[in-house]
Each structure stands twice: as structure tokens, then as C-alpha cells.
Amino acid sequence: MGVYHHPMTDIAPSEMTLDELREVLAPHVAANAVFDGWSDRALGDAADTIGIPRARAKLVFPDDGIGMIDAWFGALDREMERRNPASELSLLKIRDRIRRLILTRLEIARPQREAVRRALAKLALPTNIARATKLGWRTADMMWRLAGDQSSDFSHYSKRATLAAVYAATLIVWLDDESDGQADTKAFLDRRVEGIMRFERAKARLKPDPERHFSFARFLGRLRYPDL
To answer: Which of 75, 102, 176, 199 has the lowest CB atom count within 10 Å?
Structure first.
């Protein structure tokens, strides 16, 4: 076996810090998770691939697999960003930017689609729901930032919550989509993105009362008691 080097650096894995190894190991663990799940076995095989001791790899990911999933999802986000430079996204409408970003991320993960399925099953466990929510938010936040969103008010949070839900729903469709060119996933996504845009247009038409500040409690109250 030859000496593995990170594609972006000349550093050999034996000389990398644990943080650097985390980034390098993540895609290799995902490739093995297709067959072995997010397990110590998948981690050990990934360590063999890049030529580091399995014990050192375990220092990088000492938990039960959630850290491996976190690292891989982060790698997918960074690759999504790399493939969508601002100079290209700026030429598109907002809806098309969001659509392109989601489809790019799915395309990156497609060779390890079974690893995604296993990751979602693990994240769906009650003990992992908080972590799953955090990861979904992180991806949605990056997508909106890449799309050019600079909101900092309540809209900042509502956009990310809505997009995270749309992306999660699209993932479920994508996992079982065997249509030509994944046409079913694209059609589903198009409908959901249109829903996001309608929601944003509706918010934009609302004219806030300058004498009143936004109250989340009041907002929730109006949802429960619309006549108040």
C-alpha cells in the first residue's frame, strides 16, 4: 500500500493532527458505512485505507458513530460550497440557487446513498434528535448563505427552519428514487422550493407596525387563537 496524502495538502496522515484526520477519514468511513454501517469496523477499514493505526482513528471518533456522521455531513457541505462558486450562483434566481444547492449535495452523496440511509436511521434515535436537528440546521444555514441571504431578524431563523424541513423531506424521497435521472426527486423538490418562495413572498407583503416589536409569544398565540 502506498502512502496516502490528503488531496489538498502534502501532509501524510501520520503527521496530521486529530482535527485534520477527522476531515480526511470522514469520506472513507462513509464509503465503508455503505456496507458496515457507522461502526468501528467502518472506521477501522477507513484507517487502513489511509495508513494510520486503528487506535489513532478511534481517538478521532471516540463515540458511537455520530461524530463520523457529523464529520461526513460537514464534508458534504464544504464540497457543495466548492462546486457552487458565488460567481455562478449570482446569475440565478433565488429559487434556482436553492434548488441547485440541494441537488448538488444529493449528487455528491449519491455514491454513498446507503450510508445516508444508515446515517438518518441512527440520527432518528431519540438520543440523537438534538444532534440531528443541529446538523440539519447547519446545512440549511450554509445553503441560505451561499444563496446570498443576509437576514438577521426572525426571517433568518424561519428561512433555515423551513429549508431544513424541505431538505429532510427531499432526502426521504431521494433515498428510494429509482426514476430516470431521479426525476421524482426533482419534481418533489421543485414543488417544495416553490412553497418556500410563496412563503417568503407572503412575508415580504406584510408591513410591520413600527410601534410594535416582534413578539414570538404573540406570534404563537395568534396561531392558536387567530381571532385575537
So the answer is: 176
Over residues 118-132, the pLDDT tens digits come to: 999 999 999 999 999
d(C-alpha 139, C-alpha 159), whole Å: 12
CA dihedral in degrees (114, 119, 124, 125; nearest 10)?
Answer: 120
Instruction: Bin 65: left if φ > 0, else alpha if -120 < ψ < 50, else beta.
Output: left
Mutual angle of helices 154-175 and 94-109, in 10-degree steps: 40
Burial of 4 (0-12, 13-18, 19+ CB in 10 A): middle
Instruction: Look up residue 66 and give its amino acid.
Output: I
Return the number of other C-beta atoms located less than 10 Å from residue 135's C-beta: 20
Give the separation between CA 130 and CA 139, rounded to whole angstroms: 15
Asked if residue 29 lies in contact with residue 72, where contact means CB atoms within 8 angstroms, the answer is yes
Residue 27 CA to its chain's centroid (Å): 14
Residue-range domain boundaries for the chain: 94-206
